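User: Before I run my own analysis I want an independent prediction to cross-check against. Here's the chain; please return only the structure tokens and, at the end, one sentence I can use as a sanity check.
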Amino acid sequence: MPILTGLILLANTYWIIRLPDVAARGKPGHAADDAAIKPAALKNRAFLALMTGDGVLGTNQVLLDLRHPAVPRRGDRRTARAARLAVRHRHRDGGPPPGGGRPRRRLGGAVVAGAELFQSAGHWGFMSELTDADQRAAYQGAAHIGGPLGSVWAPALLTFLAMEHGSLGWLTIAAIVVVSTLTMGPSARAAERYLARHGSAA
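Assistant: Structure tokens:
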């Protein structure tokens, strides 16, 4: 599958390279229009900071995988069955009984699932209210920066903290999420001010 994905990306690269040069086909009258174009979305640092914080909150799936490895997602029943067998084998070998931690696991799963829904709704609100209508595609591309960054570092870091450092690791994870959440309010207000100054409606 990775090889197939790489081949598809190479094919896309080939066809992108073969696209005609838009600048070469431009007309002299386009210079004035180009000068009137507003700053690009990547210049809106407040929006980028907001989306980075949103990307940190979007790492909740990693927490679900850490605490509920036996929950089947996207139809992966074989992985769930293997996880359940591993848990049973661990308990037969003298591991702690699952009964005491089961309510806490369920509560934790409910909290994380609720946070995921709340974060998704917030992301939609940010994209609706804090992006320039005339540069919607550029802002959507900029918004995706935070998400992939989170998917790159979160699995390794959060798994390491949770599995190697126990309670201290979980407290560190909580601190990362809290700090990211606290930065999003000022970032959202700064992004709103930037849009008021440089947006198409300004």
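Sanity check: Confidence is low (pLDDT under 50) at residues 69-80.
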